[in-house]
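Form 7-S
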Amino acid sequence: MWCADRWKDYELIDTADGERLERWGNLILIRPDPQIIWKGCATSPLWKRADGVYRRSTTGGGKWVKNDLPAQWHISYGNEGERDHLRFVLRPMGFKHTGLFPEQAANWDWFSAIIRRAKAADPNRTIKILNLFAYTGGATMAAAKAGAAVVHVDAAKGIVAQAKENASLCGLADAPIRYIVDDCKKFVEREIRRGNRYDGIIMDPPSYGRGPGGEVWKLEECVDELVDLAARLVSDDALFFLINSYTTGLSPLTMNYLLDLKVKRVHGGRTEAGELGLRVSATGSPLPCGASARWER
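Output:
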């Protein structure tokens, strides 16, 4: 398991009864998590002092049943003044989200180190990264801070606008980042026709989505095609390929096998896969928070 253990502004305090108790900066949130199947073991007194509580509905969906949160606030990753210091704007969004997935910091650290090593070996090299389903840009900011030029693609205009806010907070307003509001699959297909190639590809597709015509798709039914298309954009001297999944039907080894077939078979290198995790302060044990498969040259 890859645990995101370097956070200071985020803490997974406790877990019980289908919910996680979290600290985001100075604010305490309670949000549902389907992985938390254990009951009656809450220990922290902060359960009674949450600033925001999101509850799922038995009929589907959910809502913030308590929301004493500000309209937005900021948190940091890394230490201020250090080269990997990042800042993000958070907002209480629909479907329990805040605009950031803190477990992904384990991946940020991984590919940032790869980018920095490549830049140290050849300071004049332009390292091109494609971030698909890029959301509010946590991975984009990490890659740009490490010295890469990033193409950031997401279909939601408002989410891309928030990524630009994050870039400003990170001191990356003038960094070589292209923001594209588009369907990721269609964008990749156009990039293939244009002959563009990338040195690193990051894919963080949702479990469910809607196509440009409103059609519903499920990741487990589409992931093979998505990886196959994105793999055609891998440059001859590429550095890495990362795919994330929050879909329970897609195990880490399933995604690893896809990378073996689509990337490693063509470009060599090595693959690995594992769960992402956040350590629970109350117990010291890690909570599984999704899965990743990685290819590295």
